[in-house]
């Protein structure tokens, strides 16, 4: 299995994290955006959008971080990671929606504006990011308090020793903070 990757990409990081949590062996293939490798015909055959991450699982090509997460959870996880019943599946999709909205347009944009000097309104991005984090904190607090119903399931630590987690980007490097 190959993951076409850029270490500082949040989208690539979330895939590396799930690979580590599932203890799936993989090779990281660095794609140098500064050299335009993502626009070369060989890469565009993998992902016509020219974006990272891209997963090659023995010839099965999956692009887009959310699609890759779903693929990995279904193929290498079990129902704990991507349940089949409607209620639990809907909850997973809700949290993936938070990832695609408040995280992408909030936290990720704040990181781009604050750290990489991209144009944008830092305060608006931070406010949206905080909103998503507040929703997550409320859910986690309810789970800690023993609230009934479905919710965030406890996640296992990354498999293997600490070196395996570091290879996959766990814990996150401090210089990648938003």
Salient structural properties:
178 residues, alpha+beta, Glutaredoxin, 2 domains, four-stranded mixed beta sheet, 6 helices, flat, disordered C terminus
Helix content: 40-55%
What's the SSE pattern? EHEHEEHHHH
Structural class: alpha+beta
Q: How much of the sequence is in beta strands?
A: 5-15%
CATH topology of the largest domain, which one? Glutaredoxin
Count of discrete alpha- or pi-helical segments spanning 4 or more residues: 6
Quick structural overview:
The protein is of the alpha+beta class and 178 residues long. Helices cover 51% and strands 9% of the residues. The chain folds into two domains: 2-78 and 166-176, 3-Layer(aba) Sandwich (Glutaredoxin), CATH 3.40.30; 86-152.
Describe the model.
The protein is built from 6 helices and 4 strands; from the N terminus they run βαβαββαααα. Residues 151-178 have low confidence and may be disordered. A hairpin with a 2-residue loop joins β3 and β4. Helices cover 51% and strands 9% of the residues. The chain is an alpha+beta fold and 178 residues long. The protein has 2 domains: 2-78 and 166-176, Glutaredoxin, CATH 3.40.30; 86-152. The protein has helices spanning 10-21, 41-46, 65-76, 86-116, 122-144, 162-167, and strands at residues 2-5, 27-30, 54-57, 60-63. The longest helix has 31 residues, at 86-116. α1 runs parallel beside α3 and α4 (86-116) runs antiparallel to α5 (122-144).
């Amino acid at each position: 299995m190959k993951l076409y990757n850029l270490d500082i990409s949040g989208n690539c990081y979330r895939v590396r994290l799930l690979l580590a949590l599932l203890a799936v062996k993989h090779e990281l293939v660095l794609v140098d955006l500064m050299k335009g490798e993502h626009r070369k015909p060989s890469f565009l055959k993998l992902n016509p959008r020219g974006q990272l991450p891209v997963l090659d699982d023995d010839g099965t090509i999956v692009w887009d971080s959310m699609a890759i997460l779903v693929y990995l959870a279904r193929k290498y996880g079990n129902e704990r990671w991507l349940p089949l019943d409607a209620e639990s599946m809907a909850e997973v999709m809700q949290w993936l929606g938070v990832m695609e909205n408040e995280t992408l347009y909030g936290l990720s944009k704040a990181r781009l504006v604050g750290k990489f000097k991209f144009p944008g309104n830092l305060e608006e991005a931070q406010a949206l990011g905080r909103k998503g984090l507040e929703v997550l904190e409320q859910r986690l607090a309810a789970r800690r308090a023993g609230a009934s119903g479905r919710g965030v399931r406890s996640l296992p630590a990354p498999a293997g020793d600490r070196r395996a987690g570091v290879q996959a980007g766990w814990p996150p490097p401090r210089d990648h903070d938003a």
